[in-house]
Here is the input.
Amino acid sequence: MTASSIYVHIPFCEQICFYCDFNKFFIKNQPVDEYIEALGQEMKWAVPHTIPLKTIYIGGGTPTALTTKQLKQVIEDVKACAADPSAVTEFTVEVNPGEVDREKLDMMKACGVNRLSIGVQTFHEKLLKRIGRAHSSQEAKDTVEQAKSAGFDNISIDLMFGLPEQTMEDWQHSITEALGLGIQHISAYSLKIEEKTMFHNWYRQGKIHPLPEDTEAAMYEELEAKVTEAGFNPYEISNFAVDGRESEHNKTYWRNEEYFGFGAGAHGYIDGIRYANLGPLPHYIKAIDSGSFPLRETHQVTAKEKMEEEMFMGLRMKEGVSSKRFTGKFQQSYYDIFSEVIYELTEKELLHDSGTSLHLTEKGRLLGNEVFEKFLLVYE
Ligand code: SF4
Here is the structure.
């Protein structure tokens, strides 16, 4: 079965945030047009015949760092992969506050983009500066309003918690502001201090201090309680949506299904092979110019790895791992493979078997990583 989802990576940003370890470059003086041309070429090679495309996600970096014309080109190129563009049910573009005007929004709408994911992170002015964001809290709210008035009715925002010096009051304020926007989806992640970021340097120098784990856990619980009360479904550990607005594209990942990934540093999963593209722009463009796929590495996923992934990705979702789907994919039940782990985690009340699926309990959601690790250890 061919993949029906495409991820496209736009690795340019107007400003580099202090915590970010994505493949991204400060846009000034970058070969943006050459990149877009190379990206279009990569898509044509990988998808020589159109496919029954269902979801598209253009992320980054920041797609909205591109001009309207450049972004339109990328959108047209990815749509050209679809056998029937009108059958694409979800088409998301990531947006940074302050980087869209009515013209860019109208272009996206007219081209079939029907979901925006806006990187807000926090509504606290001082914290926005502390983490290196380029926009103000007001700009974030204005961007949401602009998107709504341009006709978008499927808007997600990203929030971060566990930020240095963030208090519970700051976090509650951000949640309240988010819920006041009339949006349909919230993604919320705790800060991870990643290598090769400004935050990592500062952390090593003792200039920033991560929040204690129990404070982070309390922040997560606060979020879950508030957004659930407001009518959002916690359909995945870090994602909350009103009815009918769950991210279909991201479910491709959590259901461990295949997808194309295009662009510098993008990852994909096709025909049982996970691959990663070259990250640096000159390498990516050079590979395409010389007629070859810009691959950095490929990995044939083994049957064991597939089963592990099926479990720890699927358990992130509230619906959990479907017994029927697992058996359909692997011709064995999850009990045939993971019985010891399942019994142990059920005993600890971290996992629950509904009869048709396995999913995390409330306690399990708070200790997700502990649960996921167990499934990885089975084959060590
Ligand atoms: S968080 Fe987003 S906007 Fe900030 S540097 Fe990373 S990709 Fe760019």
Notes: The CA atoms of residues 82 and 285 lie 24 Å apart. Residues 303-377 form a domain with the Arc Repressor Mutant, subunit A fold (CATH 1.10.10.920).
